[in-house]
Amino acid sequence: MVCRIYKMVYPLYTFHMHKFISVVLQLLNVKFIVDSMLGNLAKYLRFMGYDTYYAKNDMNDNEILKICKSENRILITRDYELSKRCNNSVYLEKHELDYQLKYIIKKFNLNFEKVLTRCSLCNEELIKIEKEKIRDLVPENVYNIFNEFYICPKCNRVYWMGSHTKNILLRLEEIKNDN
Ligand SMILES: [Zn+2]
Question: For the chain, which end, N or C, has fewer CB atoms within 10 Å of the first or last residue's CB respectively?
Fold first, then answer.
C-alpha cells in the first residue's frame, strides 16, 4: 500500500521539486531579454547590474523567443501577442520608465547590490582598472579629478563617478525609496 502511494506521489514530488529548483535558480540569477521598445528599461536594468539582452529592431519574434528559452531569460515586452507566446514573460502596459522599473523591481524582488557593475551599452561586466592605463581614454580634466575607473572589456568604454553617473544613482535611489 505504502509502496503504491509512494509510486503515485513521487513523480509529482520530483516534478514540483524540479520546477521549484528552477524558479529559485532563476530568482538567484535572474536574467532578462527586453524588446526593442524598451531601450531605456534595458539600460537601467544594466545600470542595476542585471544581465539584460536588448533585442534590437531587426530581431524577429521567433529569434527573441529562441534566446529567451535557450538562455533562460525572462522576456519583458510591450507586445501583448509576443508575451502570450512565452511562459516566462512580463507584459508592460505603460510607457513610463519609472513605472516599468518599479514594476520589474517589485515583481522579481531585484536588489541594488550590483549597481554600476555592468556596461550599459553592451551588457558586459565592468572591470576595475588602474588609473595609469586609461590616461588616453578619458578627457584630461576627468583624469585629473577622479581616481577610480572601470572599463568594459568588450567596448572599452571607461566609467567613473562623474555627474552623469551620479544622476543615474540619484534616479535609482529615488526609485528604490519609492518602491
Ligand atoms: Zn561595453
Answer: N
| Ligand 1 center–CA 115 separation, angstroms | 15
Is the whole-model pTM more than 0.85? Answer: no
Closest CA to 115 of 34, 164, 46: 46
Place of cell 547590490: 113
CA–CA distance from 50 to each of 14, 28, 61, 112, 131 (Å)? 30, 11, 22, 10, 26
Confidence of residue 50 (pLDDT cuts 50, 70, 90): very high
d(CA 142, CA 149): 10
At residue 2, does pLDDT exceed 70? no
- CA–centroid distance, residue 126 to ligand 1 (Å): 8
The 10 Å Cβ neighbour count of residue 126 is 19
Alpha carbon separation from 171 to 32, 165, 166 (Å, rounded): 21, 10, 9
Burial (CB < 10 A; 0-12, 13-18, 19+), residue 85, is middle
Ligand 1 centroid – CA 96 distance (Å) = 25
Q: What is the DSSP track for 16-39?
A: HHHHHHHHHHHHHT--EEE-GGGH
Strand ranges of the sheet holding 52-54, from the earlier edge strand across to the other edge: 52-54, 32-34, 74-77, 89-91
CB hemisphere CA count around 34 (13 angstroms):
23
